[in-house]
Design goal:
Helix content is 43%, strand content 8%. The protein is elongated. The protein has a domain of 86 residues: Arc Repressor Mutant, subunit A, CATH 1.10.10. The chain is mostly helical.
C-alpha cells in the first residue's frame, strides 16, 4: 500500500483544496452575518433548489428535512463545521434553510425548560453505566 497525500486514512479526501472550492474561497458567510453557532438548529424550508445547485447544498437540504444542529449537519456530511456554516448561511440567505438560534441559559430557565428533567435523567443513566 502506498501513501497518498490526498487521503487521510479513512478514505475521505484530506486535501485542503476541496473545502476551499466548496465554499468558493470564503471562510465566512455574508459579511454582515454572524457565524451560526454549532448548536443552532436548522431545517429545510422545502423551497426547490435551482437545477445548477452544487451537490453539497443539495445534501444539506436533503439532510435537514427535520431539525438538526449545525454540528450534526457537519458530522452527517463529513465536512468541517466551518464549511457547513458557510454553506448554511448561503442557504439561509436564499430562503432554503431556516435557522433557530439556541436558547440561552436565561431563556431556558424562564421558559421552564421542559427538557431539563429528561436531560437530567439521561445524564444520570449515563453516569450509572460508566
Amino acid at each position: 500500500m502506498t501513501w497518498d497525500p490526498q487521503q487521510d486514512g479513512s478514505g475521505r479526501d484530506a486535501s485542503p483544496v476541496r473545502p476551499y472550492v466548496i465554499t468558493g474561497g470564503r471562510a465566512a458567510g455574508a459579511a454582515d452575518a454572524e457565524p451560526l453557532p454549532l448548536e443552532a438548529l436548522v431545517v429545510a424550508t422545502g423551497l426547490p433548489l435551482p437545477p445548477q445547485t452544487q451537490p453539497e447544498y443539495r445534501r444539506i437540504t436533503d439532510r435537514c428535512r427535520g431539525l438538526l444542529s449545525v454540528a450534526e449537519v457537519s458530522a452527517h456530511l463529513e465536512l468541517s463545521p466551518g464549511v457547513v456554516q458557510v454553506l448554511l448561511s448561503d442557504l439561509i440567505a436564499a430562503g432554503h434553510i431556516q435557522a433557530r438560534p439556541p436558547l440561552t441559559t436565561s431563556e431556558s430557565t424562564a421558559a421552564g425548560d421542559p427538557y431539563r428533567d429528561v436531560l437530567g435523567k439521561v445524564l444520570h443513566g449515563l453516569e450509572n453505566r460508566l
